[in-house]
User: Fold these one by one.
Assistant:
Number 1:
Amino acid sequence: MKRFEQHETLAYSLILNAMIPINLIRQAHREISPFIHRTPLIRSHALSTRWGANVYLKLENFQKTGSFKPRGAFFKLLNLSDEERSRGVVGVSGGNHAQGLAFAARTLGISATICMPTTTPKNYLDATAGYGASIRLSDTIHAAFQDAAHLQSQGQILIHPFDDERLAAGQGTVGLEILEDLPNLSRCYVSIGGGGLIAGIASALRGNEDSHTQAPNRVSPRVIGVETVGADAMAQAVAAKQIVQLPAITSIARTLGAPAVSQFTLDAVRELVEEVVVVSDQESVHELFFLLERCKVLAEPAAACCLAAANQQCSSFGKEENIVIVICGGNTSAADLAEWFTRFGR
């Protein structure tokens, strides 16, 4: 577990420098609402009993395409000019950004090309193609980024999976919905791939601190980021105080597989997020099966890892605390479940 070294005298104005403007997140919510689901926030009796607190699940696995990704994709595409839309868009993804961008582009009548590594599971490839995108495969995620840069140089509009304020503002609408349903939340666990989701959610939670709609005496919720061993680009960047390139993604949490974070998301995490917890694949799979069997929720390791982090910290939970776990996606295949059951057990 990596806890940040922060100065107690850090000025709030410094935090604002890394915060996505709350009005931009609210604009995103208004604009994308016709195209997405407003996903439920449910209290889990099983987890609340297990950890001795009030534990809630934000079910973005019920979002269109099975993850939060359409939120940011729609907001970004809706704000392109007609000329930019006519050129088509290109994305890079080994997972959920591919599907989210393909779905948003098809809905808005924009052609999309997705550059993906050959290690991408078949269910992700099939879904992305099913949403109408053209797929270009490369040997590695690094090569996929290079392929996308080449297409961008030829005129297509690059929709980066996380290094974009408008995209992250769209993801931050998850945070607005959490606050609407649970104004008195105390902690929020959010997984980190490239960092766009947590930058958006943390900005939404902090940006509402001065809102007239906040609950009386509400304290700012603690935002905890979560990664897995072998897909921990953010934790390594925070420790090094600079961007770190991972030579390879070795975790089974493929949708956390950004080879590096960006300066934008690194700054947001350093200034808005309390800490980044790194858990093992085995812990994540254990919690994935707990979710499936006890909560009837199918998640990805990239989401179940947040339960593993909360489980590490549950001894510090107060019985009146309201804990939110963001279930960011659920695009897990039956073949994945069988493989992980054999490899890790329950």
Note: Residues 281-295 form the longest helix (15 residues).
Number 2:
Amino acid sequence: MKTVQCSVHGSQQATFVCQHVVDGLRRRERVGFFWASDPENQRSDAWCNDCNNRVAATGGEWIDEALKHLEPKLLCGACYDLAKVFHLGGNPWS
């Protein structure tokens, strides 16, 4: 497992999400949260509703428009958990 040093959470698992998940979290605007099924990684790559629609249009492949708009961003594991709760409708700040 690769790690990243987060200025808020310290050393954490490195995770990747689409740019929209990060931007939505910053703006506190829910964009949805989908993730790859990986029983060995509870924090697998994740993406928003719009990216999910684009990848569905390519038959599940991250190519063309789906890949162009993804622009993956690195998050620490704790930030990933916070983003997941928020984008699925919860309030991680309460």
Note: The chain has one domain: 3-87.
Number 3:
Amino acid sequence: MKLRLGSIPAVGLAFLSWACANAASPTGDDDGIGLGTGGASAAGGTFGTGGSPGTGGTTNVGTGGGVTAGGGGTTPGSGGTTAGSGGTSSSAGGHPGTGGASSGGKAGSAGASGTGGTSLGSGGAAGRGGRSGGSGGTGTGGLAGSGGMSGRTGGSGTGGSAGTGVGSAGAPTVYCSTPMPTGGTTHTGSNVNGTVNGLNYGIWTNGSGGSITVFSDAPAFSTSWNNSQDFLAHLGLDFRTAKAYTAYGTITALFSEKKTGSGGGFSTIGIYGWTHSPCVEWYITEDSFNGLGGGGGTTVTIDGGTYTLSNTMTTGTGGANACESGHTGSWAQIRSNRKTARTCGVVTVSDHFAAWEKQGWSLGTLSMVHINIEVGGGNGSIDFPVANVTTTSN
């Protein structure tokens, strides 16, 4: 707050006259206000011109010299500044107040150092940039931040959500060293479905022997199998309305995985789902127990990787399908097979859909988008410390 000197009441003048008569020397108090030395009588001295308030912190002004009554004058001599200068931007307070020279008296004694306030002077020091999210909860759920948003100068940076997050350029990123969460709930069976942490999980198999473990606080899962037939386990999004993929904006899948054991006669690790009207089973294969293959055909570059595109008709394994009600017979199976395998990354699913449509392949309405493992038997397991699917609109 600013100190202001206006007209001085009679009681105040009496007190100042008494102070001049009884004070042998100037003294300061804890607030840095000291009485200026009275000196010689000043005839009608004016108030000393004080320093302006310091710009430190919350504009607490440094205390200057106190008001000194000039001896014999009708107006108090200016014993010091109205308010000592609060100092320049400083967390430790202002410089000592500069005492104003009295008119008809000695210079007022300088006040104690002004207290600059609780915050750093003049706007505060630049805030430290936030560090990228480190290990912790999840991006939407994982245990380590992946590329948290960089802090901006002047404010604390926001740490990335654990597991997955948004990098400073706005693009989704994955922290590939995210550790596997602990705890979780394990489900077994040949046809398991449920919801956890806003995502849909499940198992489908036409054999026996398999489990999936999901986590309530992380977009992650693990699964294991000892199965002689087709086995699938997933975590992702099921869409309950009949809309084209374009209605969901940009659809992105983020994953990190570590596998052990074997995947039987065939396997695919990546993103998987179905569309309806027409019925299409689709795969974006990022990794495999058996090699990616791919062969010839049209290639596209998406997310920095080269994929081979294919479209064939199939009846699946044992005739099982997730086509819309009433569908009979075979269905289309569309694939994007990555030429170079990877175990961690970002997949812009909508870009694959757009690439397939560019080939003239009809997709219909979107039914699901899953982080998925499919094996044709074998005995193995896989951990997905990151397994998340996001959209930019509902």
Note: The helical segments are 10-22, 349-358.
Number 4:
Amino acid sequence: MRTYNIHEAKTQLSKLVERAAAGEPFVIAKAGKPLVKVAAIEPADAPAPRRLGFLAGQISIPADFDEMGKDEIAEMFGVNP
């Protein structure tokens, strides 16, 4: 792995980034001491798409769903139905 000093890396940054992206990592050093390693980022796996309707036919909603517990809810809020 090749090492570049900061000044050299600044002047050749575009070229060095292209080389790193192509799979050739490098190190940037200051006063001969390695500071950072530059390498290409591995692409993240795309999350699996969410399936819509995966429970279709497995559950049912009662016809009076919107009215279920109506009296109890009204009583909790002090409203007379």
Note: Residues 54 and 60 are 13 Å apart (CA to CA).
